[in-house]
Amino acid sequence: MNCYNHQAAAAVAICSCCGMALCPNCINRSERNRFLCSPTCAQKSDSHDSIIEAIAEKTGRSSRTTAWFSMAFATLTLLLGIMMCSFSGDMAGKVSGIVLVMMAVIYGWSGISYYFIGKKTATKR
Known about the structure:
α1 (39-87) runs antiparallel to α2 (91-124). The two termini are 34 Å apart. Helices cover 66% and strands 6% of the residues. A hairpin with a 6-residue loop joins β1 (13-14) and β2 (21-22). The strands form two sheets. A two-stranded antiparallel ribbon has the order 1-2. The protein has helices spanning 39-87, 91-124; strands at 13-14, 21-22, 28-29, 35-36. It is rod-shaped, with a radius of gyration of 27 Å. The chain is mainly alpha-helical.
């Protein structure tokens, strides 16, 4: 593949924004060490980066919020399951309580998972 601007020169990189082939004379590097062909592509690349950072921030916040709601629901389900096991006189009530306790463990595990996903998303920026 040859350079878009210099047809006789072999391309050594591709613009990360528009996809044009670039020779060593045409390469510009961004702050994030990306290959770019022009200031216009550099501006577009910076704009894309800011959008991606905003999406990552919102995803992290959403994951952390989901984690807290999952943990709260797990706590309530666990308390209800323990109460059903303790105060139920028949076998069906005890089995229902055990099922609720198992559901609480699943909700708690998903809450912990969402928490770490949100934390990981926040640290990638």
